[in-house]
Amino acid sequence: MLIIVAFVLLLLLPSPWNLLAFGVAGLLGVVELLIWNRTVRNRRKQVGAGTLIGRTATVVSACRPEGQVRLDGEIWAARSAAGAASQDSVRVVGRDRLTLIVEPISDPTDRPGSFGRQDEPASPQ
After folding, report:
1. What's the chain's average pLDDT?
2. Would you state the torsion angle of the CA atoms of residues 50, 56, 58, 62, taken in this order, to the nearest 10 degrees?
3. How far apart are the first and last CA of the chain?
4. How many CA atoms lie within 13 A of 56 on its CB side?
5. Is the pLDDT confidence value at 120 over 60?
6. Of the CATH numbers 3.40.50.1000, 2.30.40.10, 2.40.50.140, 3.40.50.300, which one belongs to the domain with range 50-107?
7. Do residues 55 and 44 make contact, with C-beta atoms less than 8 angstroms apart?
8. Which of 22, 30, 103, 108 has the fewest Cβ atoms surrounding its Cβ within 10 A?
9. Residues 89, 12: Cα–Cα separation, whole Å
10. How far apart are CA 65 and CA 83, in angstroms?
11. What is the pTM of this model?
């Protein structure tokens, strides 16, 4: 960003100041690039189907044992040994090439959007 500002200052400022402003803004731009490079270089890349393990998906077509699940708007082939009906929530536990290995979520507090709240029993009237 600062390199663009440096070129704009080079074009807009009068003669002695444009070179000074260009030099200062250009130097700050290079420092900014070095800082960003150092910050981003040590981050671990999170790409690929392996990043889906542990995530929750919704069954699109029944997995008995093979079907399809929707995860982040994408439809993936899935396999479940326990089986899962359409619209069930499942957790991704592994993958076999491009097929996700899933298991049904059995704990009701483990479903997306649930915060572990149990309904209170009805009071007698």
Report:
1. 81
2. 70
3. 69
4. 12
5. no
6. 2.40.50.140
7. no
8. 108
9. 60
10. 6
11. 0.51
Read off the tokens for 33: 């690039």
- Classify residue 73 as left (phi > 0), alpha (psi -120 to 50) or beta: left
Residue type, 90: V
pLDDT band at 1 (very low <50, low <70, confident <90, very high): confident
d(Cα 10, Cα 51) in Å, to the nearest integer? 46
Q: What six digits make up the tokens of 97?
A: 């090439």
For the record, the structure tokens of 109 come out as 């507090």
How confident is the model at residue 8, as a pLDDT? 82
- Look at the block and give the residue holding tokens 């420092």: 31
